[in-house]
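Deliverable D2.4 — example input (structure tokens):
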């Protein structure tokens, strides 16, 4: 969560070569990459992206123990979920896999802290009340840090990153649906990387 200000959140459908994409993102300054397990090509993309020097590749949209097992088998270096399941927290701990579960309320946050976590994905960030909601939610939990994801844009990311409790944001805007132009992606990623300066 401290390696870059933005973690690109990718839904890959096979239109872009995953190795070339990972190389582009690393070169632009965004080495931490989340490949969501929403498409048939996601696990293969994780395997191939792991060959890129400097890339830190994780699996997103991990919904079950079976999916986490597949992600680990593909070489994922971290896992992200939209919600919090104690079974996934325990499995990630047993497998020594960094894990970022999604939370949107105090109950989930308390459960996660009780399970030994202090890093969370705030999701869906904008529709859960935005910065004001996260600020209120984080107030009682002084050690908790967050990666807000969901609805954040290039224009709003800096406001999120200005918050003490926010270490990075998830960026689905880095690569738009159906986009294949790596030069355009590079410029967008480089601008996102500069948010941490």
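Example output (designed residues):
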């Amino acid at each position: 969560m401290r390696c870059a200000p933005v973690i690109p959140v990718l839904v890959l459908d096979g239109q872009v070569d995953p190795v070339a994409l990972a190389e582009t993102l690393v070169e632009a300054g965004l080495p931490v990459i989340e490949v969501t397990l929403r498409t048939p090509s996601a696990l293969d993309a994780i395997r191939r992206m792991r060959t890129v020097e400097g890339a830190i590749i994780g699996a997103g949209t991990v919904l079950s123990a079976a999916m986490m097992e597949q992600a680990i088998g593909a070489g994922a270096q971290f896992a992200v979920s939209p919600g919090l399941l104690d079974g996934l927290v325990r499995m990630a701990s047993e497998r020594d896999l960094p894990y970022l579960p999604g939370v949107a309320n105090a109950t989930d946050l308390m459960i996660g802290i009780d399970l030994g976590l202090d890093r969370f994905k705030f999701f869906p960030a904008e529709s859960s009340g935005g910065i004001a909601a996260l600020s209120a939610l984080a107030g009682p939990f002084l050690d908790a840090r967050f990666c807000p994801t969901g609805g954040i844009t290039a224009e709003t990311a800096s406001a999120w990153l200005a918050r003490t409790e926010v270490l990075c944001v998830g960026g689905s805007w880095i690569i738009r649906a159906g986009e294949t132009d790596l030069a355009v992606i590079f410029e967008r990623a480089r601008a996102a990387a500069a948010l941490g300066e």
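Residues 6-196 form a domain with the TIM Barrel fold (CATH 3.20.20.70).
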